[in-house]
Amino acid sequence: MTPHEVGALLAYLGRLDPRLIRTDTGEARDQIARWHELLGDVPLATGHGWDTRLVAREHILESPYPILPVDIARKWRAYRRDRLQRHTDPTPAADPDDQAAWQAELAHSRRAVASGAVMPTAYRQIASGRVRPDLEERLRKIGSCIPPAVRAELAPYRPARAAREAAIAAGSPDALSVRCEWCHAGEGEPCRSRRIGLDGRARGNAPRATPHPSRVDLATAARAQHAAA
């Protein structure tokens, strides 16, 4: 704000709070100088939500104490900080190899956002929405969201999953659909190698690529029982 704008602001505030009125010419000049010292870099108003008069009026309504220029300056700093936090630097149009021009354009855009001259630039975010009604039907037709070629390439890195899919494709029951009574693996979990030591306790806990035979028998019996029901 210029000294003239500071004087106009003080005249407006004097109508709202008579305690700010200075009748002596010298006191009024000193008051304008003090306020301008702290509000020289604060605009009177911008086109994007900042208005010093509204900020001061809000302070007068909320606080019983006379407003000080530092109250407005702090509000302005918080306003600038909020705008910069919501701003994402757009890609400059300058040549990336010209570091000085690149940085100058970034600094110019940030100053414009901080001063309220332009709105912050934000990247669009993925918004939550309704699931397409035909999505589940399409997945059932496809069978899996992983393409077959990718699934084949992943098979060496997940042998248990590959063995399970191969068994199901061959018509065998899904052994992982039941709990293993030998290694106590839960439903959906691969079996683990267990060796019984001399003390009768289990040794080893490495995952197996294939389920235990007893688990396959349980899955076969469960499928037969389900089919009979």
Structure, described:
By secondary structure, this protein is an all-alpha fold. 50% of the residues lie in helices and 2% in strands. It is built from nine helices and two strands; from the N terminus they run H-H-H-H-H-H-H-H-E-E-H. Strands 1-2 form a two-stranded antiparallel ribbon. It is elongated and about 100 Å long. The relative contact order is 0.06.
What labels describe this entry?
229 residues, 9 helices, two-stranded antiparallel ribbon, elongated, mainly alpha
Q: Provide the succession of SSEs.
A: HHHHHHHHEEH
Number of strands: 2
Strand content: under 5%
How many independent structural domains?
2
The shape is elongated
Low-pLDDT segments: none
**Main β-sheet description:** 2 strands, antiparallel
As a percent range, the share of helical residues equals 40-55%
Strand order of the largest sheet: 1-2
The termini sit apart by 84 Å
Give the overall pLDDT as a whole number.
85
Structural class: mainly alpha
Helical run tally: 9
Radius of gyration in whole Å, from Cα?
36 Å
SSE layout and pairing:
Elements: H1 3-16, H2 25-39, H3 52-62, H4 69-85, H5 99-114, H6 135-142, H7 148-154, H8 159-169, E1 195-196, E2 202-203, H9 213-228
Antiparallel strand pairs: 1-2
